[in-house]
Amino acid sequence: MKKQWLGNLISIVALVVGLGVWIVLPWFAVLGIAVALMLWLFLTRSGRLSLEAAKIGIASLPQRWGASSVIVVGIAGVVGVLVAMLAMGEGFSATLKQTGGEDTAIVLRGGSQAETNSVISRDQVPLISTLAGVAKGKDGRALLSPELSQIVNLPTASTGEDANAQFRGVSEAAWAIRPQVKLTEGRKFNVGVREIVVGQGAKGQYRGLDVGKTLKLGNQEWTVVGVFASGDAHDSELWTDIDTLSSAYDRRAYQSVTVRTEGKAGFDQFKQAMENDPRLKLDVLTTRDYYTKQSTGLNTLIKVLGTVIGTIMAIGAVFGALNTMYAAVAGRAREIATMRAIGFRGLPVVMAVMLETMLLALLGGLLGGLIAWVVFNGYSVATLGSNFSQVVFQFKVTPELLWSGLKWALGIGLVGGLFPALRAARLPITQALRAI
């Protein structure tokens, strides 16, 4: 009994390890396995016998479709939930990664991880503007924008409950530094006036942000004069003049400075000049690196949660597959015994049951991936970003995620079909034939 228990434990551990390896296999390795399997099925005697035996089982699926659908629906649920969870992280990460570029830099206080805990004094801005590598505008002035981020509460469009929004104060140079930001409605804000332009994502997320509307922020009235689109994280923000925002909220320092550099080489020059100036104890990152780092924590959390939830659901799907396939093997005991009696060895019988289970798993994986793509791809949501404000983004169901979901489906089918297949191969022929 101890040996049997130990053997079962080793088999389970081997299956778990094998399933983990299967999940992380690259596409070309999976393709190689599939090609090798196809060659074995069509070029060897055992393979051809397995194929013929599998055809018999597959032909009987319509007669037991109710039981077989348990496998398909269970695996479809696992794949759908897993892909949807990972698509959320993929969408959030993609939104932040496409914010900024290699030729723009963000300056923060030394050691600061985000704008919220950064402070840059006003007298440091002129020093920054004189550093090497800073691009100049048509007027010959340095293209840099000292900025301030204020968190404000706005009612959400869906429920009316208050949520955090990022109210950013920028200088006139911000438009030239971020050429991807384009006005779609109205006009730019005027300097020294309480006027706001809002991102198209923020307009859809919050109430009262139509052009011409008036908001009360910081106990003062602000007028929405325009809507802009940027296709990145700035779509979730409200913009106004930096000095007006500083005055309204009594902010005497800036939080960051965004700089247009003279290409990638200019960024390297700018960073080196910053490090060489003892008056500036500041950190410099490309805006792409900065926003990419902001997405890392949440994306990792979503991946871990998605994997944990997917694993829990996968265990349930495996048990469903085990029950269904055990019942199928028991119902086809005489048929399997007859095949064994006329010359089918154990390996073709095992492969026949496995091929049948893998086919059902493939159908479940395709169904789950299709549902995830139809329902969630492009679905807009908002979540808290690193600045404790809502970032509007879209779920992104990529081919890589669909491929990963399909591998999970086939892995579940592999585990769920293996033990019933081994039982089918071990059925006593004489005992099964007596029941005929």
How is this fold's topology laid out?
Layout: H1 2-24, H2 27-43, H3 45-59, H4 65-97, E1 104-109, H5 124-129, E2 144-155, E3 162-170, H6 174-177, E4 182-186, E5 195-199, H7 200-205, E6 214-217, E7 220-229, E8 237-241, H8 242-248, E9 256-260, H9 263-276, E10 282-286, H10 287-331, H11 333-341, H12 346-376, E11 380-384, E12 390-394, H13 399-425, H14 429-434
Parallel strand pairs: 3-8, 5-7
Antiparallel strand pairs: 1-9, 1-10, 2-3, 2-9, 4-7, 5-8, 6-7, 11-12
Helix pairs in contact: 1-13, 2-3, 3-12, 4-10, 4-12, 4-13, 10-13, 12-13
Question: What can you see in these coordinates?
Answer:
The structure is a single chain. The protein is α+β, with helices and mostly antiparallel strands and 436 residues long. It has two domains: 23-97 and 295-434, no CATH class; 111-280, no CATH class. The protein has helices spanning 2-24, 27-43, 45-59, 65-97, 124-129, 174-177, 200-205, 242-248, 263-276, 287-331, 333-341, 346-376, 399-425, 429-434; strands at residues 104-109, 144-155, 162-170, 182-186, 195-199, 214-217, 220-229, 237-241, 256-260, 282-286, 380-384, 390-394. Strands 1, 2, 3, 4, 5, 6, 7, 8, 9 and 10 form a ten-stranded mixed beta sheet that branches. Strand 11 and strand 12 form a beta hairpin. The protein is elongated. The mean pLDDT is 83.
